[in-house]
Amino acid sequence: MKKRLALMLVLIMVMMTLAACGGGSDDSSDQAADSGDVIKIGATGPYTGETAMYGVACKEGMELAEKEINENGGVNGKKIKIVFYDTKGDTTETVNAYNRLRDQDEVVAFIGSVLTGESNAIKDLIKQDNMPTIAPTATGNDVTEGVPNFFRVCYYDNYQGGAAANYASKEAPEGLGAKSAAMLVSKGNTYSEGLAGAFKETFEKNGGEVVIEESYAKADKDFSAQLTKIKEANPDVIYIPDYYSTVGVILQKAKDMGMDIPCLGGDGWDSIQEEYADVAQGYVFTNHYAADSPNENVKKFTENYNEAYGKAPASFSALGYDAVYAMANAIIEAGSTDAQAVVSAIQTMNVTGITGEFTFDEEGNPKGKEVTIIQVDNGELKYVTTVTE
Amino acid sequence: MNSKTKKAYLLNAVAVFLVYIVFLTLIRFKVLSNYFGGVIILTCIMMIMALSLNIVAGFLGEMALGHAAFMAIGAYLSGFTSIAIMNAFPTAPALLVLIFSSLVGGVAAGIAGIAIGTPSLRLRGDYLGIVTIGFGEIVRIFFINFDPLGGAQGLKGIPRLTNLSYAYWITVLVVFLIFTLGVSKYGRAIMSIREDEIASEASGIPTTRVKVMAFTISSFFAGIGGSLYAHYQGYIDPDKFQFMFSIEMFVIVVLGGLGSLTGSILSAIVLTVLPELLRGFAQYRLLIYSLALVIMMIFRPQGMLGRTEFSLYHLIYVLTNKREPYKKGSIDGGKSS
């Protein structure tokens, strides 16, 4: 038994040394190869685990931007290198990963994190270190609030909910011309509740009325009770702000019940055409960008992305792409990697990205950003129009 | 206390102090970065969690799969308390606030432990496991829907009071307290129930009361661990305290050896530091980590240390007196492997 224990301990120790070497040699070879010629930018996100699809989509967009920037001469004559660390969507891991990026990799700027919870967990640290940070996809309402060096390229939940309400109340063909609306909300889900709250407020300000508000719990699979009530109330539109996997099931049920009330959603609907094209046919949702937008930049981005990964980019990829470009441009504008100079550059810069044109307001949120309206049409996402809050 | 025990205590105290000095110097002189400091703090927190779980899982021999819930209660209540204190007295000394709010969190978790332990400890084994899983989910869902404590958004703005020194010494204190519990009359009563409940009842041990006591002490220390965690992160959200987190702690205890405190400490170190060391492997990280667990459980099903305790004194004794083999000790007199 003792021999076995010794063997095991030796095995573990060998593995640990290997691990340390693995990490170490990575760093040293990088430094040896291009010491001083590389600007390191850190990034974290859930690249494994339950929310991996968001993290991976974002990472792919960021890697594409990194490649393009380096092919076009880099930043201030140096190449940029994005160091990615996985967080599994866990807040503790995010703090560790961020600390490691700051201390071990000595990054000069940070792009992250992907999820709202992760970003909240490192918010204080970002402020304390004055790390120039752009969050690509954390849409929770007050993520960047109170931290002058924390920005984001995505609009926040309230903004999006308001835009959806504006689109719903505008007369056709610019909108849906709805006078009454129903809301179906995921209880306890910050994203869903945030969007719904903002939608209700703006919709009622526009003179409409939210006639019925139904909710369900995260793991619910049966929505017939809620849908029956909504059917009886007979609103002009149903607002369902949730992720596409749940929305698909709801829409399927609604179709089975013979409902023909138009449904409206948020950016969580992105990718709904892949599995639920038939039940979502003709419905619209708000999103960060449209892959088939007439905009030249978007066309180029979609083509390049398709070439690199063999698929159409999700909206999180576009946001990751924009975040890297915004950070690179800020470093160019600042002329150095000095934290305060970069932060000042971000504060005053104009971003012309895939997801729209905007500046940053004093809370670090995008100002004047357009919300794109997308329609599901025969298994594809079609650009409809853009609205502002 | 005989002279041997005294010597052993003294030796351990010196060792604990030396380790502290070494870490502090290394960080002061930037040999180790703040990042490592953070990992050490997390390791300390996981040690407290594993040790406290070991009281129920190891000493009492019951399956408790809701430990994250007690941690959540401790984290939320202590976080809330220290926010309130810091708002009322912004200049209050950090250590006092941390200790006070940790005690609030610990006591709250302890009360929850009594509340859940009293009815459910009549059950054994997998039945108790299911009850504790259910309890864990209730607590998590409660915090998701309880808006005064942040709801699904999580509790923000908790003062970041936990630093390396506080975390280290609080952990040392918790280790000491749990160790003394193990060798005390009450600890032996707890272990006797694990060995044979009927026999221990026949010897006059009020088994239900002792079981509830063990459960309460365990959840009290879990609350303390939760408090340290909340004050280290500065932000807590209900999603952190999912069922899988309870399982993670259970894995630490089983891997270290059920009933072995030093085993729990060792495996808390290994399982917290290993994923961080493996960051260089990117996506293979979790694969290697899980593989290490599988290999470990195949070759050493009783855990790293089984039921035996590692002792510095014994080690030195063995090293200096090679001729006379030392009788190996374990905290509960269990069979060593």
Structure description:
The complex is a heterodimer of chains A (389) and B (337). With 389 residues, chain A is α/β, with parallel strands linked by helices. Chain A has two domains: 2-155 and 293-354, 3-Layer(aba) Sandwich (Rossmann fold); 158-287 and 374-387, Response regulator (Rossmann fold, 3-Layer(aba) Sandwich). Chain A has twelve helices and 15 strands. The radius of gyration of chain A is 23 Å and the shape is globular. Chain B has helices spanning 3-28, 34-59, 67-88, 94-120, 125-145, 164-183, 185-195, 197-202, 207-233, 243-256, 261-277, 285-299, 312-320. In chain B, helix 2 packs parallel to helix 6 (164-183), helix 2 packs antiparallel against helix 9 and helix 3 runs parallel beside helix 5. Chain B is globular and about 55 Å long. The mean pLDDT of chain B is 88. The chains are: A alpha/beta (389), B mainly alpha (337).
What's the architecture of the largest domain in chain A, going by CATH? 3-Layer(aba) Sandwich
**What is the CATH class designation of the largest domain in chain A?**
Alpha Beta
CATH topology descriptor of the largest domain in chain A? Rossmann fold
How big a fraction of the residues of chain A is strand? 15-25%
Q: What is the end-to-end distance of chain A?
A: 69 Å
The share of residues in helices of chain A is 40-55%
Q: What profile does the largest beta sheet of chain B have?
A: none
